[in-house]
Amino acid sequence: PDGDGLTWNKAPCRFCGTGCHVQVGVEDGRVVAIAGDKAADVNKGLLCVKGYHVGGILYGKDRLTTPLLRRDGKLVEIDWDEAIEIIAQRIYDAPDKFAFYGSGQWTIPEGYAAQKLMKGGLSNNHIDPNARLCMASAVTGFLATYGVDEPAGCYQDLDECDVLITWGNNPAEMHPVLFSRVTDRRSRGETIRIIDIGTRRTRTTDAATDYLEMKPHGDVAIALGIMHLLIKNESYDKSFVEKHCAFRGDEADTPTLQGEAITEEHFRERIAKYTPEHVEELSGVPADQIRMLADLFGDRDARITSLWCMGMNQHTMGTAINSLVHGVHLLSGHFGRPGDAPTSLTGQPSACGTVREVGTLAHALPGGRLIAKPEHRAQCEEFWNLRPGAINDTPGYHTVKMFEQFTKPTAEGGDITTLFVQVTNPGQTLPNLNALFNDKQGLEDKFLIVSEVYPTATTQLADLILPAAMWVEKNGVYGNSERRTQQWFKMVDPPGQARDDAWMTIAIARKLFDMGHEGMRDKDGEFIFSVKDENGDEVPVWQYDHYYDVNVDKHLFEEYRQFTRMKHKNLAPYDEYVKARGLRWPVVEQPDGSWRETRFRFSGFDDPFVAEGQEFDFYHSTSGDGRAQIWFHEYHPPPEVPDEEYPLWLCTGRVLEHWHTGTMTRRLSPLNRAMPTAYVEMHPDDAKSANIRQGETVVIQSRRGAAELPVWIDGRGKPPRGTIFVPFFDETKLINNCTLEAFDPFSKQPDYKKGVDMNKLA
Ligand code: SF4
Asked: Which UniProt keywords apply (predicted)?
C-alpha cells in the first residue's frame, strides 16, 4: 500500500502457525487498515478471513487496562507497583512453590525472559507452555526420529508435491492460506492428488481426490499397514534405507523415547501382522485403500507431502503416530527432495519459535539443551554467567500436572501455591476442566496471576489480573511452522496501563533483585536482565517508563541467539530480521557478509551443515551414525471406546472463523456474526434415532461433565455415524468439561480428538 497517508509496516499475522505477513496501516496512533504483504513468501499478499480482520483485535470494548486484585471476592484496581510487589513477595517467600504457564503466542523474547527468570534465576523448572496441549507429540516424534526437533522441509513442499496427504488434518479451515498454495496450483491447471485421511468430512475433504474415513485412532494402524506392504512388496527404497536409516522399536516393558535398536529382520517380523485386512479391522479403512497408499509410496517418481497438526498430536499414541509417519516417508525414500516431506504444522504463531526453539517446556533449556543432562545445565549456566549448579537438575511439572498441583489443596500435596499465566487461557483449554476447577475446597493459600488482554474463562478464576499489551502494541519476534523467524516493531501504544509480558517478567525479577534474591544476580553481581545503553550505562527497563528507551527485544534476542548455535538452529542477527519477511533457520553467514536461510534440512543440496559431498546427513542422529530412525510401534487401542452407556465418540477442534478460545476473534464482529456459537456436528441418522432436530439444544454428557449445544446436522463438517464434533472456541459452552485426561506417555500431551471420550444425548 502506498500514497494513502497511512504509515505502513510489516508484522506476522497474530493468529495461526502459517505465519502470513500482513502490512499494518496506522493513522493517528491507531491501526486502521490491514493488507496482505505481497513481499512475503508465505502468503504472497493473500490472507484468510481472520488475517484480514486482525487489526480489530486491539480494539474490543472490554480491553483490560489496569491491574486488578481480588479483595473480598471483588476485583479492585491497583497500580503496577503494588501488583509487582505482590508477585515478587509471593515468589520470594516460596520460590519453589511458584509456577509459570506460558504459550506459543509468547514472542521469542518474552518466552526467553520467562525461561531465564525461572530456570536461571529461581532454580525452578516449573514452567511449561500451552503448546504442551497442541504439539508436544510432534516434538517427541521429531526427536525420536531425527534426534532434533522441527520439520526438515518447508512450505515449498506444497508447491512441488504431486500428492498431498492430510492425516487427521483440516488445513482448508485451520491453515487456509497454506492450503490455498495447493488449490491455487490446481486452478492453474496442475494435477495434485489430495488424499484426506480423517474421522469426519471437512472442507479439506471437499477439495480431496480421495477421502479415507478412519475410526478414531486408526491412523496408527494405517501407517503400520503402509510399511507392512512396502516391506512385503519389496517396494521400499532399499538404497535410501541402507545408506541413511536405522530401525528402532519399543521392546522394553517400560518403553522409552529412545527405544532400542532393532534389525531390519526384526522390523519385518514385527510388522508382518499389519496386513491390509487387519488394518481395515483396526482403522475402518478398506484394505484396497491401504494398498493404494502403499503403491503411492512405492512409486519413487511421485513427490508426496504429508501434513498433520492436532489430529496426530492430541493422541494417546501421539509420539508413535508421529514417528510412524516419518517412518513411512523414510522407508519409501520420500524424503528430502522438494515436495517429498513429512511435515507437521503448528496451531499457534510461535509454537516453534518460542516453545520448541527457546525451550520453554518444563524439561528443556534454550538451544535444544535438556535439564536432565549435567553438561547441558553447565553450558547454560556459563552462557548466563551464573554460579555452577544454579539450574535445578529436576525437570518441572508439565502442563496438566502443574494445574493438578495448583488446584489440589496444599494439605493434600498440592505444592504449587502461586501460578502466573501469560498469553493463554487454560480455564478453557485444559482437559477435564470440571475436575480441575470446580467444587474445590481448601485452596485459600493459592494465588492465580493472569496477564491478559480481555476477560476470559481464566481471568474469572484469577486473584490478580495484569493488563497486557498485544501484537503491534509491542516489539516482537515469532517463529512459524516452517522454521521461519519473523520480526516486527511496536506500531501503536497499548491502552491504559497495559504492558508487555517481557516487561512484567523483568519488573518482577528486578523487584526480587532489590529484595536481595541471590538468583537475580549473575556471578559478577549484575542483574540477570541488565540492559545497557550504547554508553554502557544500565537502562532501568524494569521501571514503567523506561522499557522502550532501548530495544529490549533486540537485547534479549541477541542473547538468546547465542544458544541457537548449539544444535544447528542458527539464527541471524536481529537486524537481518528487520529487513526480511522472516528467515528459515539455520541461517548462516556467507563470505560476502550476507545471511542465507535453509529450506531443506539434512539435504546436501541446501543444508549448510551436511558434510561436503553427502546427499543426506542426519547430523543429530540418535544412533550417532548420521542415520534417521525408522520406528516400529505396536498398535494399542484407545483408552476408552464407545459402549452402551456412552455410545458416541467425541472429537473437538477449531473452526475457520475463530482462533483457539475465541478471546480475540470473538471481539471481531464480522467473524463472530459468521460463527456466533459453538455447536455439535452430528450424522443425520444419529440425530434421527435420538429424535433430535436441526438447531435443537442437546446436552452432551460424558463421564466427566456436560455441555449444552445446538445441533448442526449435515453442517460444515460431516461426522460419520457414531461420532460427534464440537469446536472449543466458545467460552459459554465449555466442551472441555467433557474431555478426558489421557496422555501420550512421552510427550504428556492430552488427547482431545479421538478414542478417549464417549457421550450420550440427554
Ligand atoms: Fe493469519 Fe493463519 Fe489466516 Fe495466515 S492463514 S492470515 S497466519 S490466520
From this structure: 4Fe-4S, Electron transport, Iron, Iron-sulfur, Metal-binding, Molybdenum, Nitrate assimilation, Oxidoreductase, Signal, Transport
